Amino acid sequence: MARQERSAPMVNWVYDLWLWLFSVLVDLFFREVHPRGSWRIPRRGPIIFVAAPHANQFVDPLILMRVIKTEAQRRISWLIAEKSMKRKFIGAAASLLGPVSVGRALDSTKPGTGKIYLPDHASDPLLVRGNGTNFEKEAEIGGLLVLPTVNGLAANAEIAEIHGPEEVRMKKEFKGEIAMRQLTGREGVSEQSKLAKVQQEFRGTSYKTAPKVDQTQVYNAVFDRLNAGGCIGIFPEGGSHDRTELLPLKGRSQPLIHHVRD
């Protein structure tokens, strides 16, 4: 029952009809699409399509679906955010195409109490302390601390240990100069420089917490598709964007690739 909740069956004729209907709309904007190297796509057996950069959550999968169906006669089951599946139109349309629903921790964030800061980024960048926080009740090991969004991006890190209501240790340090400025209150603090200790008057930044998400059901649903010789599609950046460069890749594609190799 749990696996059925994470994946929907693919009906081939519905998939093909849906693809044809929406391809008419795509043709209005893209007169020609010339794939390169499509002859490399195996005609049978399990495949994982890892696509990036992800510019548009509607157009990107549609173009890939059409190219792969035309060139290799294969159909793709996409990993789709559970948040998107709950939207009326998107969820109803996507459910007809045999998707696998993925719960994301960052879709379930909640504002945290108090402020957080790095007391000594130079010597111990994994130690985070709080002012008026309540980590024991609001956070959990394996969950995330999420910093305020700047320029469309919000730095986050996973919690490895909770030492009390006002102290946690992260699994990895927060990345980026903006994150260091948010957590230290100092300009020019970066991962490379690792300047002096946080200013005494700085009391921290606001933050959000995100729960630990168990993806066992997702992996089971994906492995079922792959073991049946199907195709899985994933956008490893975790969301669409308008940048020319790649965003940091999420780690959930790695276990899937290892499974196919084995």
Detail the topology: elements first, then pairings:
Blueprint: H1 2-6, H2 12-29, E1 47-50, H3 59-72, E2 76-81, H4 82-85, H5 88-94, E3 100-102, E4 110-111, E5 115-117, E6 127-131, H6 135-138, E7 144-146, E8 156-164, E9 167-170, H7 177-184, E10 208-210, H8 216-227, E11 231-234, H9 253-261
Helix pairs in contact: 2-3, 8-9
Any overview of this molecule?
Helix 2 (12-29) packs across helix 3 (59-72). The radius of gyration is 22 Å and the shape is elongated. With 262 residues, it is an alpha/beta fold. The strands form 2 sheets. A 7-stranded antiparallel sheet has the order 4-10-7-8-9-6-5. The protein has a 4-stranded parallel sheet with strand order 1-11-2-3, sandwiched between helices. The chain has 9 helices and 11 strands. The two termini are 27 Å apart. The model is unreliable at 192-198 (pLDDT under 50). It has helices at 2-6, 12-29, 59-72, 82-85, 88-94, 135-138, 177-184, 216-227, 253-261, and strands at residues 47-50, 76-81, 100-102, 110-111, 115-117, 127-131, 144-146, 156-164, 167-170, 208-210, 231-234.
